Amino acid sequence: MRHRFGTRLCALGFGLAAVLASGILHAWPSEIVGTLSGHVAPVYGVAWRKDGKQLASASFDNTVRIWDVAKKAEIERLEGHSKLALAVAFSPTSDEILSGSLDNTARIWTPRDARPPVVVAAAKTPEKPAPSAAVAKAKAAEKPKADAKAKVAEKPKADAKAKAAEKPKADAKAKVAEKPKADAKGKAAEKGKGADPSKAAAKPAEAQKAVVPAGPRTLAGHTKQIYGVAWSPDGKVVATASGDGTARLWDPATAKELRQLKGHTGAVYAVAFSPRGDVVATAGEDKLVKYWNVADGKMLRQSAGHEAAVYAVVFSPDGTKAASGSMDHSIRLWNTQDGKAAGVLKGHPDEVYSISFSGDGKRLASAGYAGHVYVWDLAASKPVAEQKFGAGVMTYGVAFSPDGSTVAVAASDDKIYLMKP
What we know:
The protein is an alpha+beta fold. The chain has helices at 4-9, 12-22, 133-142, 145-153, 157-166, 169-191, 197-208; strands at 31-37, 43-48, 54-59, 64-68, 73-78, 85-90, 97-101, 106-109, 118-119, 209-210, 217-219, 226-231, 238-242, 246-251, 256-262, 268-273, 279-284, 288-293, 299-304, 310-315, 321-326, 331-335, 341-345, 352-357, 363-368, 372-377, 382-388, 395-400, 407-411, 415-420. Strand 22 and strand 23 form a beta hairpin.
């Protein structure tokens, strides 16, 4: 049994042999409406932000990248994985991104434009350091004696005499003393080391506001590569699927493991949450789809029928069905309540690596190893759009946009293609 990662790196000849043996489905050719370029190695996974304005991608170049779909431009590059990035998912409740890697870790990233500005302490700003006692004295010196005399002059002698008449001479001298020397020092203290330090930092604070890079939260515990990642609908739990034979649930806020899902007899290639978030589905090398209770990690049921490893699993938007894609070239549909078969989509000319439901649940996009991408009409159980990429280009990931108008395709030629279904 070949592992999914090894399969994806094997020679293209196997995929072409599969095409010749199986025949090719025919549907209306789709239109490529955009290309996102920037990765320097094959793109393995793609995911849309909930508003459809941004895409995230995971690549063999070890990076996760964020893209502005309208501008077809890279927004940010997330670096930190030490080996190939294999999976990516946007949070449904925030702009955070979850990724999985060949380095056995998953990471949760906060994009730069979602980080709040942070004011760096004034003492750490070399161009305008916090005033010291010496600086305070220097500032005091900036107010020359003439200015001090001017302060005294503001109270003319006649007025001083009037004050003296109201109070004893000693008190008058005290008043005069308060104005030139004590008050001058007080003014200097206010600007320097004195009573209100916030005032000293007030001016430089504005210049010091900056978005401070926040390192990703690392989810560590798997002993082999992470093939699949997913967020719960409420964003409070994340799931990972690994070559170590387990899927795991994590608290994204603390990066702590909540529980392990054990039961597959080989690598776990994919993981997905139900729309209600109470069930997780996993797919694996053992040809099975399994369903788990999120609350306690217990297996609820399983779906059997594939004849080879299952590489992908997703829930329909209403949660009544699950779909799975396999190395056996088929896509199967399952009733989630009992795990029983609900249909099969046959004729894919290559191994099915990735699948994605449209938002209305009426269509399913699929990507195959040999570069075939299809959009299926589920009611008719046939493809209604197809795209065959160039010779030598393999397609690893596929994702419907939230509004169903575009399908993003992750390809081996280092690009993400935007396809009209």
